[in-house]
Amino acid sequence: MSKDYKDNAPITAKKFMEEFRRYQKGSVSRRHFMGVTGLGTAMAVMGSAMPGLMSSPAHASGDLGDRLIFSTWPNYHNPANMENFTGDTGVNIQINAFGSNEEMLAKLQAGATGWDVFVPTNYTISNYVELDLIQELDLSRLPNHDPSSQSPMFSNPATVDGKVYAVLKNWGHTGIAYNSAKLSKAPTSWKDFFDMTMGEGSGHTIVHDYQLTTIGGALCALGYSFNSVDAGELAKAEKLLIDSKPHLFAITSDYQPGMRSGDAWMTICWNGDGLQLNNDIPEIKYTLATDGGEIWSDFYCIPKDAEHVDAAYAFINYLLDPKVQVLEFESHGYATGDSRVDALLPPETAENEILFPAAELMNGLEFGAAATLTDPLRAEVIARFKSA
Amino acid sequence: MANENNRSGLLTGALLAPATAWFLIMLIMPLIVVAIFSFGERSPVGGYVASFTFDQYANLPSRFAAFRNTLTFAPFGTLASLLIAYPLAYFLAVKVSARWKLLLLVLVIVPFWTSLLIRTYAWIFILGGKGIPAMLAFIGIDDVRLINTPFAVMVGIIYGYLPLMVFPIYVSLDKLDKRLLEASSDLGGTPFRSFLQITLPLSMPGMATGCMLVFILLMGEFLIPAFLGGGKIFFVGNALVDLFLQSRNWPFGSAVAIMLVIVMLITVTLYMRLTVGKSTGRDESLM
Fold this sequence. Notes:
The complex is a heterodimer. Chain A is about 40% helix and about 15% strand. By secondary structure, chain A is α/β, with parallel strands linked by helices. In chain A, a hairpin with a 2-residue loop joins strand 4 (about 160) and strand 5 (about 165). In chain B, helix 7 packs antiparallel against helix 10 and helix 8 (about 180-185) runs antiparallel to helix 9. The longest helix of chain B is centred in the first third of the chain and has 36 residues, at about 1-35. Chain B has helices spanning about 1-35, 55-60, 65-95, 100-110, 115-125, 130-140, 150-175, 180-185, 190-200, 205-220, 225-230, 235-245, 250-280. Chain B has one domain (about 65-285): MetI-like (MetI-like fold, Orthogonal Bundle).
């Protein structure tokens, strides 16, 4: 640390213009100008988002290429793991974060995504197989994958017609996060959630920009199945959603900023986000609803037209390493359903109620049904609700 | 004579070919594809199946709110940008010394170095509960809601589109012959009168260009309402994103897109009729 601290300080406006004049007059080189003003750094940062522009380090483990395109969900990975993988293999990872499975399906259906690995949810896998959009996996290339350590309840959707197309990433559930300092009572059901949205929580509630959970929550509040595709039941759910719309703070799957700023008091919430919020802001609680909700598992899949298949297998295998999974868990807070990982976690984790809620609440949950992904009625209900 | 005509005709054709090809491949062909899609049907798993039906057009009223919002925010956003951009452009072109001009112009461009998405995301925090409302609460003004309101969307629009308005106006003011102003003052015109009778009319082409740029882009905007309107303020652009990227209803999405093109053609034609007549006949400098 021989450098002066000021070396890292941003350049002053005066100095910037002096340097700019010197560069204009030709007394310094472009490289010097970029260096002293920080513009070079700014470009290097942008460059790192485009791996093609960067020279890649020597490959330690075979030739995996220099890039991998990975589509996943927001707040769902430990950046340190991503960096380590790049450091070990020279493969730069470009991450795309999505808000819904429908959005992922839309991109894959349109074709030429360039994705090498993506993270779909249980109910979508049979659809992807039917549409011929994902590859059957060669499990011999995933030595870190151990089916016997996984809970079959969560890993079952990976197998379609006896062939394995996916490996389990995490599982979780969809409930309600609420700010107990702002609300006089705790919502315990989806009925409460919508009543309070139109009552004391008016102007402070978020629902997802996602048909499965938002329509599902409204259906549960009305006493129907989370997965209903019945036209009459969906019409009632649509009415409930449209009635509550003027009272909503936002319709977005990116609900952490709103909850953290205190603008939003209640949101439909995935339990890992619930844990992240609760860890940082203890008055934000997470609960499952007594009238139903979703239990889900996420998977790693390789699209049919992936360009960097070797890198994709190496990346998935790396992420299945139990030690890597522990680091992932520490970052996102979702259970793995993998007994090798559970053995490495601190014992109190098993008692965490956000991760593992009481059995009577869990029993009411439903796995998302494959039909909801492609059902035209559900697609149109959420679209009409948003454009109302 | 006939030969020479032929040759110059060939030459003209050859010179026009690249532009024509570009026009056909980049504009006409995609539009034809969209038009064909708009008469199709959504396949059961999403996407498009060939058909000939007007169902998609019959369903357009279900997106009435999106068209209404777009047709409200686009003109008002354009007007607000114009009102804010004009004094700024005037200041840059007329008042600022040559020494500072370049720096200030660079400052107007600097935001373009970062993507609009990132800059708009930053506004979520500025307008959110811990941003400006927290500062207002500090001086005793409580419970101000800024984020996810029409106001926030308007702020985002002005912030995002201001530079596009400033530059054309700046250019037209910068070209302005200062001797005209001297003449006006010699003849007894007050500064205000000189501005109204000379500066303002001569900067009309710049204003017309700026308004056109901003208005057309605003008609297709979706990012700002999604981020700063919390998904509750819904533009036609959002409806399109939704239909193509969520519901995968390409035929209906195509019908909405065709409708947007028609609405845009009508409004822009009306606008051209109104402004070109007024901008002292110098319509050649519109773009």
